Amino acid sequence: MVAPGELTEAEAGTWRALRATSGTPANPFMEPEFTAAVGEVRRGARIAVVRDGRSGEPVGFFPYEKGPLGRGRAIGFGVSDCQGGVFRPGLGLSARELLKSCALSAWEFDNLEAGQGLFVPAAAEELESPVIDVGEGYEAYEAALRVRSPKFFRTTTAKERRLARQAGEVRFVFDERDPAALRTLMEWKSAQYRRTGRRDRFAKEWISTLVRRLAATRTPACSGVLSVLYVADRPVAAHFGLRSRTVLSCWFPAYEPEFAKYSPGLILHLRMAEAAAGAGIALLDLGRGAAEYKDALKTGGLRVYEGAAVRPGARAALHRLSREPSRRAHSFVRNRPALARYAQRTLNRVGGLRDR
Where's the BioF2-like acetyltransferase domain (predicted)? Predict the structure, then answer.
């Protein structure tokens, strides 16, 4: 068991090699760079390094956060969009053995990657993470979008032309390095959270610090990417996410409400898809969670899982009692569209009262 900062470069190289041969999309949240960044802002961050009993060589890595009473969570829980361990195939390790070695009574996840054989059997729910596949180029994606959602595409591109006529030249930067643009995005996102009655993630210092650290990260497997849509050199929409060579994991999108009638967020996502395809990225992972813009843009979806792996015992029972009722309540609402819409309207009213 090591802190993320104690992982050697050789071990990190083995981690990357195992991921490269896993056959799963190269999601940057599953790379050692993301775990290292979380380790700089979360005291409970740990990595279990699994070694071959004969050679002593590392054959697996399990990043996690450890809390009171042995309660464990996925690394970066609450903001990480892809979770799990990185293991050599056919390792013959059980989840119970792994948790015992880590002195964990439970390990909770909310975006478990498909194919995580140790933990998928413990999942309580299977969910979709919508994706945009641009592996055949943006032109192929756009052609399919015109056929699948002709009204959506026509309306969005018309709004972009109207935005240019009425507000000024439209300019897009795929990988913006200006720290001021990142601060603007975080301010927009905080306001959006409050406006919709949700918990402001950026009010938590560890999350805002993590995002700033990742914005400065530049490695082939995990790099921060800030994309900005400008009008007359004024930012009107922005997105911050993480990319590998072939996957852009979409994370924090937001826009200036003053320009809402032009749908700048949708314009931004189409520009992002085009730029990503040009940069060799094959997949944009929009992240789990229902949203109309995701339904309009997606070409398919990946499976992710929510739940917890637990070891039998009093602490595991305590975990179930403290977490499972809340998780089930959220799932009940999420899986009933009419109830989910009512809940969102209620949150919006709460957000409106909060801003008065």
Answer: 153-294
Tokens 């730029």: give the residue: 275
Q: Give the residue among 216, 148, 205 at the shortest CA–CA distance from 182.
A: 216
Question: Tokens 């990142």 identify what position?
Answer: 182
Q: Supply the Cα-derived Rg of the chain in whole angstroms.
A: 21
**Residue of 274, 275, 297 whose CA lies nearest to 285:** 297
Helix (H, G, I), strand (E, B) or coil at 38: helix
Query: What's the half-sphere exposure (Cβ side, CA atoms, 13 Å) at 308?
Result: 24
Residue-wise pLDDT for 129-154, tens only, equals: 999 999 999 999 999 999 999 999 99
Strand partners, 307: 109, 123
Domains annotated for the chain, with CATH where assigned, are 4-128+303-354 (3.40.630), 131-302 (3.40.630.30)
DSSP 241: E
Distant-in-sequence, close-in-space partners of 61: CB < 8 Å, separation ≥ 6: 11, 14, 15, 18, 32, 47, 48, 49, 50, 85, 86, 87
DSSP for 171-222?
A: EEESS---HHHHHHHHHHHHHHHHHTT---GGGSHHHHHHHHHHHT-B-SS-
The number of angstroms, rounded, from the C-alpha of 215 to the middle of its chain's C-alpha atoms is 14
Reported as type and span, the H/E element at residue 259 is none
Confidence band, pLDDT 50/70/90 cuts, at residue 343: very low
- Judged by DSSP in three states, 294 sits in helix
Distance (Å, whole) CA 306 – CA 32: 22
Paired tokens of 325: 């009722």
